[in-house]
Amino acid sequence: MSDFRALDGNQAVAEAMRQINPDVVAAYPITPQTEAVQVFSQFVADGEVDTEFVTVESEHSAMSACVGAGAAGARVMTCTSSAGLALMWEITYIAASMRLPMVMMVANRALSGPINIHCDHADSMGTRDNGWIQIYSENPQEAYDNMIQAVRIAEHADVTLPVMVMQDGFITSHSVERVEVFDDAAVSGFVGPYAANFQLLGASRPLTFGALDFYDYYFEHKRQQVEAFSHATEAVLEVAADFNCRFGRDYGLFQAYRLDDAEVAVVVLSSTAGTAKVVVDDLRAQGIRAGLLKPRVFRPFPAAEIVRALSHVKAIAVMDRSTSFGSMMGAGPLFLETAAAFHVLGRAPQIPMVGYVFGLGGRDISPPDLEGVYHDLLAVADSGDVGDPVRYLGVRG
Amino acid sequence: MPEPKGWKELPIGGIIDSPGSARDLETGAWRARRPIVDKDKCTSCLQCWMFCPDMAVVVQADKMRGFDLYHCKGCGICAKICPADAIAMVAEAEAGTEGEGG
What we know:
A: alpha/beta; seven-stranded mixed sheet; 12 helices; B: 19% strand
């Protein structure tokens, strides 16, 4: 039996963490993630979990404590946002390269400066090459579901990588929605016990962690990380299938919404995909064949699967809530990745594709904005002329 | 030094799963100056053995016998610490085969 509760995204994540009952949580508060660890720390204080909660003086220390605990063989979780993730940066690489399967919720927030506490994806997109699996959530329910699945994905024998679970700061981290919370026993049964492959504290098997690694072995260890990502896609699907079987919600590498017979499609992450669904329904009611592809997993990037799912449409818009300064025409990372996928894996002639950068620093993206994107796409599909391939949506001129 | 392993054979995560693997690494390869012991002056007090950071002082039957040049990095701590002034640091280019063979 599950329970339906009114929770915001942070509370939903804290609830998942309570049910997962990790061995160690080391975290530092930062807006808009604070509430998640605050609620969780109350669970610790109330004795509802067995977790050792390590209070630290910075995110650099939080991630360092997570690495230490992970190396010791503990199941580890943390949460952060924005500048907190930036301060963790150095150690996120170490967590990944030491192959420590921890789970971190990131409530996406813009990076300074100018200082800003609202949502965009600059923080997690900046870490896209750090070696973490990245899963994006549309709403509190998905954040809850993804946290639970992330534990299994991270610890999967073919993967053993850290996982970041994203949700949009404030937009979903602080929005109360109806969230289905599963039975504690069902969640702990799903995640199962954790037995680390390697344990610093396993005295019967002495091991060295974090050794110096020059031109003689460093490259081989990086190659192994690349290999782990090639198994991660399958692990994500395997865990999703078991999740669906037990809890009745179907997750994949991405969600295709009214895409099968779509003529024009938008690709967008997280909460904006929720807004886009409303727009798709409105446009469909007007007889316009609009569709949506919402990537769930950005790392590993499901290139072949995305190309296949979009191969029938006449025009594609890829929308980024972050940019990559100095990139090709100032395009965002999701557009660049998707465009590269079509160039390498798509069939000729190429489907016209437009990139939109939107919503930086929490700038609202409204249904009329998205309607405009679909109408732009219809014009592109009609004329075959992409025009300006990268556009900034909602910025004042 | 054994043949380096490929990525498919190595333990993941940069873990070293067999203790004492530093023994196989020729840290002596970057030595610029070589310690040479004058056996007439040496009293086998073994302070060099105690202070050597690389366990490169060879001792047999309580006697200082010379240096393990495979691991000696040439730091010169042994020469500095030696109370009998029995150890000289000689540039590798001028050392020839002197001091080899422990």
